[in-house]
Amino acid sequence: MNNLISSKYSDLNFNKREQDIANEILGANPYNKEFISDKLQLISEAKSLSSALITLFRQQVQSGFVLSDPVCDKQKKSKYLLDKETGINFCLQWNPNRELRLNHDLLIERGVINTDIDQELLINRDDNEKPCYLCSQNIDIQNSIEILFPINLSGIKYYCGANFVPITDNHFTIMSEEHKPQNYDSTLILSMIDFVEKTNGVFKAIFNGKAGASILSHLHLQGTTEKLPVEDMNISDHDMIFSDSETRVYKPQYYLPLFILESESVKSINKKTDQIIQNWRSLNPHFHTQNIIVLKQNGKFRVFVFLRDTRKLKGSSKEGDMGTFECSGLLVLSKGILDTTNHSTEERGLFENSNLDTIKNLLKEIAPEYKIDVRDLI
Ligand SMILES: [Zn+2]
Known about the structure:
By secondary structure, the chain is α+β, with helices and mostly antiparallel strands.
């Protein structure tokens, strides 16, 4: 048990007491949610929130709730393509386990969902009578080994739960306590910044507006510790379209409209980000949406805002909607097969045969059309 934490998570730098608690968590009966939650709280208080979340993710991998370990999933493959124009090292990820996420029957078969329960207790059913997957009350009842870590983000209560079909290591869903739709409002950026701040920048926060979120009935963010390709993109002073004493806004050359904001001030970067998003949305309230990433680097917050349109969610050669991960240069592909004669189908074919132009075209295809100079959004 000791090795599990120390070999992969040596950077957690636990002292003897913290390591002992982590070992108790990993050694506990996975159905004993209360014991594990209490111990995670101890790690969060004694060490840090990020250490508690990373330990929780390991525990959820070990218990089998996370269906495949993102750091050693034998089915998962990555292919990198460096784009010299933007400086981005694009990544195509073949991740067939992602397909399990919306297959209710398979989730029952794999033990993620327990059906031997009182169905009457489940709340907030959708049009197909499926109870909401993100309501904590439902999770407590029907997901016997899923553990939620409560967190307060800018005065709003959320729960962090490991994504059971992760795209990256330490991939979390951060769901609001309240069952309310996946709508943008001005408090959202503050919650994202607060999550990044509370994890000392170890985690970044992601929000799919109505572009890429698979559950639109319940507000949720995502968190991950992994670097996203777009973080390394070339930005020069020529790309700067706004600056004041606190915040800089860049509009770099990219294949879909992207703003990058940088600031040490929470208040200032929140105000500027919200202004851009509100202006974009007001141009066409029915269709305009956005993908957002918030992270902290060298003491500065960085916010990435990708402008999106719900009429352009898919690229022609990729089946699923393109969300924040795709916009940031990590293209997740999960449908189709590669058979023994090297014949590939659906997205597996895209994984096998794509080159840099394929990726650029996919991004261009989801770029919204607009008639204004986007600089006017500031
Ligand atoms: Zn819900």
